[in-house]
Design goal:
Elements (H helix, E strand, L loop, with lengths): L10 E3 L1 H4 L6 E5 L6 H12 L2 E3 L7 H8 L6 H20 L4 E4 L5 H8 L5 E7 L2 H10 L10 H7 L10 E5 L4 H13 L4
Parallel strand pairs: 2-4, 2-5, 3-4, 5-6
Antiparallel strand pairs: 1-6
Helix pairs in contact: 2-8, 4-5
Length: about 190
């Protein structure tokens, strides 16, 4: 449990999520460097769910493009989004729960990977360019260069709190606290 004496984490639940049953699949989303992998791993450990790193599902050509500072097009992203959608579908068909990381920058991408299923929820790690750029500069061993952050923010369509299944978390809080608060909110939803 999280210490209630800590500063409150800004957690916003969409209207749809607030009225929904507990999701079976979570997609931790946001621009590169926002903490998707860490928060997903922390949530998966707490909940006992499987986790997939969405970057591992990119075709090699996408990794090469991004490594060279070339933004992906929608055509480049399509096979990657389809692989993520297939993983989500497999979990759902097997009655399993899981968490996948995926930038999910546009609403059309989110619709493509969730396929409209109400038990797929997006966990949006929201932060400004000023919040996230220092993290990217400190990160090592990842293909995404800092210079790509502008293109990520240019592509980003923030989730619609009225029409999408989304929980929004402020990236300025400690990641362990974010994961704990997200899990606590999910625990409050009916089965």
């Amino acid at each position: 449990m999280c210490d209630n004496g800590q500063n409150a984490v800004a957690v916003s639940l969409s209207r749809r999520l607030g009225q929904a049953v507990r999701p079976r699949v979570l997609v931790v989303m946001g621009v590169s460097g926002c903490g998707k992998s860490t928060v997903a791993q922390l949530m998966a450990a707490r909940m006992g769910w499987s986790v997939i790193e969405g970057d591992d599902l990119h075709p090699p050509a996408n990794i090469a493009r991004m490594s060279n500072g070339i933004p992906l097009t929608d055509a480049d992203r399509a096979p990657w989004l389809d692989r993520i959608a297939a993983e989500i579908l497999a979990w759902r068909e097997q009655g399993q729960c899981g968490i996948v990381t995926c930038s999910s920058l546009r609403r059309a991408y989110r619709e493509r990977i969730s396929n409209g299923h109400a038990d797929v929820c997006f966990v949006y790690l929201k932060g400004s360019k000023e919040d996230i750029a220092p993290r990217l500069r400190q990160r090592t061993g990842h293909f995404m260069p800092v210079g790509m952050l502008d293109s990520q923010f240019a592509t980003l369509e923030e989730p619609d709190m009225h029409h999408e299944m989304v929980m929004t978390l402020d990236v300025n809080a400690p990641q362990a606290h974010l994961a704990e608060q997200a899990c606590l909110h999910l625990d409050r939803l009916p089965d």
